[in-house]
Design goal:
Layout (H helix, E strand, L loop, with lengths): L9 H33 L7 H4 L2 H55 L3 E3 L2 E3 L10 H50 L1
Helix pairs in contact: 1-3, 3-4
Length: 182
Amino acid sequence: MTRSVVPGDPSSLSILGADALRAGRRLQADAQALASRRADEAGGVDRTSSHEAGTPRVRKDLDQRTSSLISATLLTAEEMLRIGRLFQERAAELSTAQHTLQGLRDRATAAGLGIDGSHVSLPWGITGSADADVQAKRVADRDHLQADLDRLQSSASTRRRALEREVKSSTAALTRIIEGLS
């Protein structure tokens, strides 16, 4: 079996996107809840005992760490939402590209041709015709289908590379956020 010119699983990519979006929304809610509690405490609605609050230096350190945590959580949430939306968009594009590929296969079959990997060709066996016009049409059909297949393959490859770059970029952004907490 040859490799498809449009490899991938749109369903899995869509599920991954949905999971990233869900995680991003949860992180946003958690950061907002923490920020709200912090604001309540700063406004005099202190929910900790004086023993838990510690010395002014400890409170200041805790306040700085809490600010950093809220900021990092919000940045992480934004990145998860961004990459989740991107996965969802790419899943839809991949599904469309695979549908287009199936359409090309159907056109090839109707023209008495086949698609094997990234090549449009005549099927095995005796396929010729004594009619030169029929042969010329088959060659023209093959050339048009090959051009369409080449465009589809190029587009799918470009999108796949762009997604790989975005995932690497997202990984780097999340790494910077984590390193900022250290």
